[in-house]
Design brief:
108 residues; alpha+beta; 4-stranded antiparallel β-sheet; 4 strands; globular
C-alpha cells in the first residue's frame, strides 16, 4: 500500500471511523512503529539532537499538513516531537491519518 502517493480527502463526518480490523490493515503500511491510542488516534515520537532540529522537523510538517488539509496535533519537548493523528470530524481514524503519517515519516 503506497500511502505517500495518495492525498487526503476532505472529511466532514458521516462516515464511520476505522475499526480495529481496518487499523490492523493500515498499520503495516507505515515504516515506523506508531502507537494506537484508544483505537482512535495514532502517535509517534520523533527524537532529535536538539531543540532547533525538532523545530526544523515541525517546520517541514506544516506545509504538508496545509497542502493535504489534514493537521496533526504536534507536541514539542526540547529534542522530541510527538505527532498525533486522528480525524476530528469522525472522532477516530481514517485513511487520511495514515496518509499523513506516511508523508511525515518520509521527512526523516
Amino acid at each position: 500500500m503506497d500511502l505517500q502517493s495518495k492525498h487526503c480527502v476532505p472529511c466532514e463526518g458521516g462516515v464511520a471511523p476505522f475499526d480495529e480490523a481496518k487499523i490492523k490493515v493500515y498499520m503495516p503500511a507505515l515504516s515506523l512503529q506508531w502507537e494506537v491510542l484508544g483505537g482512535k488516534k495514532i502517535s509517534h515520537q520523533f527524537k532529535f539532537k536538539n531543540f532547533p532540529e525538532a523545530i526544523a522537523f515541525v517546520d517541514k510538517i506544516v506545509p504538508i499538513a496545509e497542502a493535504e488539509g489534514h493537521h496533526p496535533d504536534l507536541h514539542i519537548y526540547y529534542n522530541k516531537v510527538t505527532v498525533e493523528l486522528w480525524t476530528h470530524a469522525i472522532g477516530g481514524l481514517s485513511e487520511n491519518d495514515f496518509i499523513m503519517a506516511a508523508k511525515i515519516e518520509a521527512l526523516q
